[in-house]
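mind reviewing these tokens:
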Amino acid sequence: MSNNLKSSANGSPVKVEAKSLEQALVKAAGLLGLTQDDVQYQIIKEETSRGLFSFFKNPVVIIEAWAKGKPQQASRSTTPRPKSDRGARSERREERQRYQDDDEGINAVKAEPLTDAQVAALTDELQDFCAGICARLAGEEVAVTTTVDDGRLVLNIDNEYIAQQIGKNSKLAEALEHILRKKPRHLRQELPFRIFVDVSGVRRKREEELIQMAHDLSAKVHENKRPIVLNYKSSYDRKIIHMALDKDDRVYTKSIGSGPNRKLMILPQKDAQMMDEPEIYEE
């Protein structure tokens, strides 16, 4: 890694340099062990933007980042970009729309389907790009393999450091997926597959466990006629459970709470109102 890339074990500010602000935030979140939503930052230096294709050139953005709620220890003040206010939209709609929008790519237009050769070239391009990002994060060459599974391009990363970082901060994998979706801007059309970043198969195994658990809990809710609340902090975990039960006519799912207190509720389909205090289920 670059010599001026500082890591933090106690949540103190870190200084990060990268090709873009988005990549810098991914690195900073990983170093701080936080989600990007929990990171505040200020830009120390920003040269003219050169786009994602300049990833392997000299860094053009330097930021100082720290955990929200901690005193700012930066020398200069920059107002963070405001977050969009989605109002009172439910998390279920919000999460699905976000993933759907990401999967559709940038400036998608109607176009002829990609040929097999073009799809193969795109796969190789994304594989190399992912390996490059991971190499910068890990400070060493990183092996990335690809498979196409059920309409998804699965990029499987084989690196202990990256595995540790994603284990500490699951948002890192989602951030990588987002960057990879935005990479092939030259296509100007919908990608022929969804993009899924995995690390040694751990995330796919996690998906399978969540789906199985969701079906088990659905049966329990249907049998007992009582709702269950799942205390999952990860929005991705909640999304998997939402989708797993989307076509289950015995139950329906609902998000409650806000921010870090967001929870997912599974209710009997015919029960519009909770009978008693919901059972709290923690993995």
